[in-house]
Amino acid sequence: MSSSIDNFEWLEDAIKDGYINSFNYNQFSDVKEIGKGGFGIIESAEWGIFERKVALKRLKKEVCQLDKPSIKEFLREIRLLMKASHHPNINKFYGVTKDESTLITNSAFKGMPGFIEPQCYLVPGYKRNKKSDIYSYGVILWEISTCQIPFPFFSLDPIKGTPKKFTELYKRCQEVNPDQRPNIKEIISTLKDPDINIKKAGSILTYPKIPLTQDYQTDSTPQEGI
């Protein structure tokens, strides 16, 4: 695996585990460019929910177009801000956000963002193959079992009542290393296994309540970090 993927896995894990807050981009308004750095564009914005002005740093390019030194410097900056965020003379880091409209525009040639394997974004010049389709198929299996829409950094945790072999199957399909993903024949064979009885499982699955909007929740108070 490339070091780029390993580095961004650290960022994904930090967000998933709650060490880094992730905010809905729609919370920010009046976004204006105020400067440029080595690999990012600095913007000012109004953070409506907290009624304060903040600075947003946007990457100039997609991750897959950044060279390794830029990615390394980007992540180094995040780590340094995490350590020094409580210093009175240093900007406080509240978390990360993502402009979904930019993501969709930049990803149009690849497909729907939630179904795209990480390599398409993290490995410059990466060419999709059959294993790429297996990854997407694994997302579909996850979507079927959870009734949720996939999005970047989504959790692979199964819901109560999902057959264990079914869960193991879609997780294998979404292995970061393409060589560790099963082939289509193995997938079909597994789905025919008597232990994977979707109809029977459907009667005991406990589906989560999905809110109509996924706006910022008051119980996830931003922590001043990074």
From TrEMBL:
Pfam families: PK_Tyr_Ser-Thr. The keyword Nucleotide-binding applies. Keywords: ATP-binding, Nucleotide-binding. One of its GO terms (molecular function) is ATP binding. Residues 28-226 form the Protein kinase domain. Gene3D superfamilies: Transferase(Phosphotransferase) domain 1. This is 9411_t:CDS:1. It comes from Acaulospora morrowiae.
